[in-house]
Specification:
Order of helices and strands: EHEHEHEHEHHEHHE
Structural class: alpha/beta
Number of strands: 7
């Protein structure tokens, strides 16, 4: 029986690279999206045309009801949920004096509460199976904080705390919970940076380059593999040595 993975926010970037890698390894894949309908369905059609078992599922991860429906639809279609990858997220840059309550709440709702909603929805399934793997995508800014990104840094730090606590809670049920904290990755999330800003940033990275979405996806795949069954509650930094 094929294993099943839900990848939130997987219409592009790290999420899309992760969905592709799991599909290529013979998994049932649920591509989750909220607003990026065209990107999600284009990716799905491309994978299905190559013989892979993939579906799309719209759900705003900040909305508990929509997340619950996504989980139910996944179970109806594939019968199990073996891995959850909480990748959906949004960024926000601005001084704290320019960050209003609506901005802050939106970041927390998607980047942190969204992870909580998805973890809560799949936990009964995985506990019943006595197996499962949850991988949360945080950020190096959740580890060290970023100037002018107070809300984002706070949300991503919360994801790390959630990961560690949930790992302890679910370990007796044979479920692992880990976190990946990417650094500067070549995705659309950095499209707001100028070439000069990117070059300045790269100069501070010991390995001297940006990371790729494929490199993060490979780490997700490793943490969901049998080789990582004794790893839980950990934060894996993929940042080229920027945070050591």
């Amino acid at each position: 029986m094929k294993k099943t993975v839900i990848v939130t926010g997987s219409s592009k970037g790290i999420g899309a690279a992760t969905a592709i890698l799991f599909a290529q390894n013979g998994w049932n894949v649920v591509i989750n999206y909220n607003e990026s309908y065209e990107s999600a369905n284009l990716l799905c059609r491309s994978l299905v045309s190559n013989g892979y078992s993939v579906i799309t599922q719209k759900a705003n991860v900040a909305n508990k009801l929509e997340v619950d429906i996504m989980v139910k639809e996944t179970l109806y279609k594939f019968g199990s949920i073996d891995v959850l990858v909480n990748n959906a997220g949004v960024a926000y840059q601005g001084l704290i004096t320019d960050t209003d309550e609506i901005d802050f709440d939106s970041i927390i709702d998607i980047d942190l509460k969204g992870v909580f909603n998805c973890c809560k929805a799949v936990t009964p399934v995985m506990v019943n199976q006595k197996s499962g793997c949850i991988i949360n995508i945080s950020s190096m800014w959740g580890q060290v904080g970023a100037s002018c990104e107070v809300a984002y840094s706070a949300a991503k730090a919360g994801v790390i705390g959630l990961t560690k606590a949930l790992a302890k809670e679910l370990a007796p049920s044979g479920i692992t919970v880990n976190c990946i904290a990417p650094g500067l990755i070549e995705t659309g999330m950095n499209s707001n940076l100028t070439i000069e800003e990117l070059n300045d940033f790269v100069e501070g990275i010991p390995l001297g380059r940006m990371g790729s979405a494929d490199e993060v996806a490979a780490a997700v795949r490793f943490l969901s593999s049998p080789a990582a069954e004794y790893i839980t509650g950990q934060v894996l930094g993929i940042n080229g040595g920027f945070v050591v």
